[in-house]
Amino acid sequence: MPKSQAPLPQAAAAPAALEVAGVTHFYGKRKALDNVSFTVAPGSFTVLLGLNGAGKSTLFSLVTRLYVTRTGAIKIFGYDVVRQSSQALRRLGVVFQARTLDLELTVTQNLIYHAALHGIGPFEAKRRIADVLARAGLADRAKEKVRNLSGGYIRRVEIARAFLHHPELLLLDEPTVGLDIKARADIIAQVRSLVADAGLGVLWTTHLIDEIAPTDSVVVLHHGKVLEKGLATDILARTGTSDMRAAFVKITGADLSHGDAP
Ligand SMILES: Nc1ncnc2c1ncn2[C@@H]1O[C@H](COP(=O)(O)OP(=O)(O)OP(=O)(O)O)[C@@H](O)[C@H]1O
């Protein structure tokens, strides 16, 4: 073959921030996840949308290795969470649904403790804590006891803490549940700025449809199955709807009239 016609070398595809491939999970005989597959691109804000019982927390537990994946595979930047767990989990930051800060410690003390757990020395920890608190708009709360903070501020500290070891993928499980409208908006803005400024890949699980922006990637999980995935705008076009609430109803057939998903 003449040199000019030689095939170009294939560029290796960059791994997804998160790849969930064919994951099925049972609780006894109950199938909570059924052949679930989707990806989160690096630097993207991906919403895992599903009503209560859809399987969001189960998936969360499998990604964070609370449960072991038995069918299918989960990879973080190409590292399998079961077989290469330290490389995979090093790249992961997590904000759990339940509050996990020590209420009796100050904001800084909580963050120092977390930095030490990740092997970050005191000098570097101080620098990073100043950085994450500034990003979260919490610089003036550094010395405050967590007990004295509102629910919204506590969540912001948890997000700042999850970013302290500079993960490339951040998982948040229903992070705005129980917060008022202003606190919800602040938290969404905080995480969206981490995506824009730090190139973080985010998986944001929620049942709150109004948290979705047109440029977000969306995965619709319903009764353990992925029924739709793609950019929010593309989902609207495919379903012939003008808002995500109508799209969700069309995709899932769910009845939202009793206020399950505002
Ligand atoms: N430990 C468990 N044992 C048995 N069944 C469970 C367990 N945890 C969850 N399930 C069931 O698995 C299914 C998925 O639950 P999961 O908690 O993952 O959903 P979810 O989307 O996170 O909902 P929620 O927001 O209510 O937590 C549900 O039918 C639930 O009842």
From TrEMBL:
PROSITE patterns xrefs: ABC_TRANSPORTER_2
Pfam families found in the cross-reference section: ABC_tran
Matching InterPro entries: AAA+_ATPase (IPR003593), ABC_transporter-like_ATP-bd (IPR003439), ABC_transprt_ATP-bd_su_PQQ (IPR022467), P-loop_NTPase (IPR027417)
GO molecular function, one term: ATP binding
Keywords attached to this entry: ATP-binding, Nucleotide-binding
All residue ranges annotated as the ABC transporter domain in the record: 18-248
Superkingdom of the source species: Bacteria
Listed SUPFAM superfamilies: P-loop containing nucleoside triphosphate hydrolases
Identification of the protein by name: ABC-2 type transport system ATP-binding protein
Organism: Methylovirgula ligni
